[in-house]
């Protein structure tokens, strides 16, 4: 392909400025055929050490010339008294002109003569450089000067004013070509053949393309997520200033609620308190129990339970439990918690010093809270509890959440703490989740999208299955371990269908199993996350079904690196209409 990389799945741009330049080049369709080439991030320069290569941000090439382009995002400063440049927001000394010239000299004097021995290709091509400052204006005190064989010329600079309007990148390339073609050092250059041009392009791709390994990209995604989540720890400090008040912490997916809940558990246990930690999802609590040893919590200080497992634990009760009625929501939300509260053994009443509830939106009703409050010393009136919840995006079980939330604020001493910023997902994940559900876009801290999330449409179940297995193979080819991928199904019937596609590569558990990809319902995966999430949308996609939309939003925001959702193409027009409305 004339533009490289041609596919940016799994590709990392070192700066948002470079990404914007790349996107502009793609949008302007300058490289629709092999007459022109654009390469991002070529390690052309010799830095003086065999372990480190200098990187050129972009190289433009056609049969007349090669242009070496250096991009600097943010503020760029120039000190006219010393002729020094300062990049990275004006905080670090660095000369973008010299970086571009280094790539030019290395290519003209070494790489091309070595590639075309005796054919003098370098003598037939024009060479030039350009420097791009898309976020700022060129310094007013920067004037033309020359250092050795390097020209520092204001006309070679692309700045914020150049970035405005249509075809901004193409206009800049035309300007550079006109400047360097007329330059005395390039006079009499006849150009090269299409075959020679293709040979250089293949040589650049094969020998100099600078890409981060996939494992490096995944590691960076994890580091970014951990860094941004740590920024949310301030909310727990608020609890210290309100020691007699319960905390109701409300935040959308990816805001770090579960990590904060674990940190609060650790802090309370360190204070010597006996803590009950409750969530709704059985798979989530199984996963969280594996974290206890990492938290350094001593045995006996913390009990971690999923709600219905706790309420049905016979050791807490002085009467035999009634039979289970799986499809009866009244049993789970009303009758079971009432039975637990009425039949709780005396030695367990008030046996915990502190209560932490995760997935609170699924537990927010009067019967379940009364049951949990009976285990708390001093009851709910003590204020010795914290609830982490998302009643706006992830409420798929509970119709009473909003009403009981209002009651809870009024009836007990509480402080409400919002978590507004998503730490897990990237911009494209949030946008994709919003487009397919109509739910609001969250603000997110992770702005770099190495693997943009996507919506795929299928014509039949067979087509869906073929696309799904092809995507698994693609990810494996990129070096992604199977256990770093989870397949989530909107409908329970889809789980068995998917498992039958590749039994040796897939498994039905929520937790990671070495060299296998997990396949399960979205419900069963709520509260968990993985690097890559492949979601099978509902058989009958219905934008008016709010519960279904919440499910899809949950699935789309489980991914740390990339989410892909597969939707029947019968419903493509509905999603495209919503996409048009958002833009």
UniProtKB/TrEMBL annotation:
Signal peptide feature range: none
Helicase/UvrB N-terminal domain: residues covered: 237-359
GO molecular function: ATP binding; DNA binding; hydrolase activity
Short name of one Pfam family: ResIII
Coiled-coil stretches: none
Protein name per its UniProtKB record: AAA family ATPase
Organism annotation: Pedobacter agri
């Amino acid at each position: 392909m004339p533009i490289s990389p041609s596919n940016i799945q799994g590709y990392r741009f070192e700066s948002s400025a470079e990404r914007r330049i790349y996107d502009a080049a793609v949008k302007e369709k300058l490289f629709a055929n092999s007459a022109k080439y654009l390469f991002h991030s070529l390690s052309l320069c010799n830095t003086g050490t065999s372990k480190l290569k200098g990187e050129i941000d972009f190289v433009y090439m056609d049969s007349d010339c090669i242009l070496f382009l250096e991009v600097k995002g943010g503020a760029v400063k120039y000190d006219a008294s010393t002729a020094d440049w300062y990049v990275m927001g004006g905080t670090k000394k660095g000369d973008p002109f010299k970086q571009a010239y280094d790539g030019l000299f290395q290519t003209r004097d070494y790489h091309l003569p070595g590639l075309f021995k005796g054919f003098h290709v370098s003598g037939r091509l024009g060479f030039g450089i350009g420097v791009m400052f898309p976020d700022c204006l060129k310094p007013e005190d920067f004037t033309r000067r020359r250092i050795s064989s390097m020209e520092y010329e204001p006309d070679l600079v692309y700045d914020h004013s150049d970035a405005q309007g249509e075809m901004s990148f193409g206009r800049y390339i035309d300007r550079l070509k006109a400047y360097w073609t007329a330059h005395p050092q390039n006079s009499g250059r006849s150009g090269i053949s299409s075959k020679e041009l293709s040979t250089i392009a293949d040589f650049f791709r094969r020998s100099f393309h600078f890409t981060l390994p996939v494992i490096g990209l995944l590691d960076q995604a994890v580091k970014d997520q951990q860094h941004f989540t740590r920024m949310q720890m301030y909310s727990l400090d608020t609890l210290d200033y309100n020691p007699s008040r319960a905390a109701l912490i409300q935040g959308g997916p990816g805001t770090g609620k579960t990590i904060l809940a674990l940190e609060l558990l650790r802090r309370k246990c360190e204070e010597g308190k006996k803590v009950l930690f409750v969530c709704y999802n059985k798979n989530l609590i199984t996963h969280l129990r594996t974290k206890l040893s990492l938290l350094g919590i001593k045995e006996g200080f913390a009990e971690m339970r999923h709600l219905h497992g706790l309420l049905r634990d016979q050791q807490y009760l002085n009467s035999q439990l009634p039979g289970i009625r799986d499809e009866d929501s009244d049993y789970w939300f009303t009758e079971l918690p009432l039975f637990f509260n009425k039949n709780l053994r005396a030695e367990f009443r008030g046996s915990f010093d502190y209560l932490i509830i995760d997935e609170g939106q699924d537990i927010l009703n009067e019967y379940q809270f009364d049951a949990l409050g009976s285990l708390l010393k001093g009851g709910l009136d003590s204020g010795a509890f914290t609830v982490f919840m998302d009643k706006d995006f992830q409420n798929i079980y509970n119709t009473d959440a909003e009403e009981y939330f209002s009651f809870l604020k009024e009836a007990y001493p509480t402080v409400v703490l919002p978590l507004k910023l998503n730490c897990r997902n990237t911009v494209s994940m949030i946008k994709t989740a919003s487009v397919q559900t109509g739910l609001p876009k969250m603000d997110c801290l992770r702005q770099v999208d190495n693997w943009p999330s996507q919506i795929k449409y299928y014509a039949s179940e067979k087509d869906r299955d073929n696309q799904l297995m092809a995507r698994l193979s693609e990810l494996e080819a990129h070096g992604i371990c199977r256990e770093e991928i989870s397949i989530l199904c909107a409908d329970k019937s889809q789980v068995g269908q998917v498992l039958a596609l590749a039994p040796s590569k897939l498994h039905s558990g929520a937790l990671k199993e070495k060299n296998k990809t997990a396949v399960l319902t979205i419900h069963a995966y709520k509260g968990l996350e993985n690097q890559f999430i492949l979601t099978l949308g509902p058989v009958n996609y219905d934008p008016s079904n709010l519960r279904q939309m919440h499910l899809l939003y949950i699935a789309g925001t489980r991914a740390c690196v990339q989410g892909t959702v597969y939707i029947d193409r019968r419903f493509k027009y509905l999603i495209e209409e919503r996409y048009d409305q958002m833009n």
